[in-house]
Design a protein that fits this description.
The chain is mainly alpha-helical. 56% of the residues lie in helices and 5% in strands. The chain is elongated. The N and C termini lie far apart (61 Å).
Length: 118
């Protein structure tokens, strides 16, 4: 019985140590924060431009296909990224789609759209 108590105590202390290590804050310098802020703004701006390009009826379909099939990796880590489909305002149940399906829907459902992010 005493071995079980010692083992339980060991496991408890081990898990406590892991959780304590996970709570360590990473301190960033002002320069690092500014660099991350600028990178984030650039990425959001690129995403905004990409979505607007896909929603523009005057753009060439073959170039839209390149974005849908290749260029999306500049913003998303891979083709398995899930995006909540917010393109249908009347949808009551949340639906997630792969990034490429979401981008195709922008091209398909919108004939002229403008996305703006702040």
């Amino acid at each position: 019985m005493q071995i079980k108590q010692i083992l339980a105590l060991f496991i408890l202390l081990y898990l406590w140590n892991i959780s304590a290590n996970c709570q360590n804050e990473i301190k960033l310098t002002a320069e690092e924060i500014e660099a991350y802020t600028q990178q984030s703004k650039q990425m959001v701006s690129y995403l905004e431009g990409t979505l607007n390009f896909l929603g523009d009826p005057n753009e060439v379909a073959s170039e839209k296909d390149i974005i849908i099939n290749e260029s999306y990796t500049k913003v998303f880590v891979n083709d398995e990224v899930q995006i909540e489909d917010d393109l249908d305002e009347n949808r009551e149940i949340a639906l997630s789609k792969d990034v490429q399906a979401y981008l195709k829907d922008i091209d398909f459902f919108y004939k002229n759209v403008s996305f703006t992010y702040e």
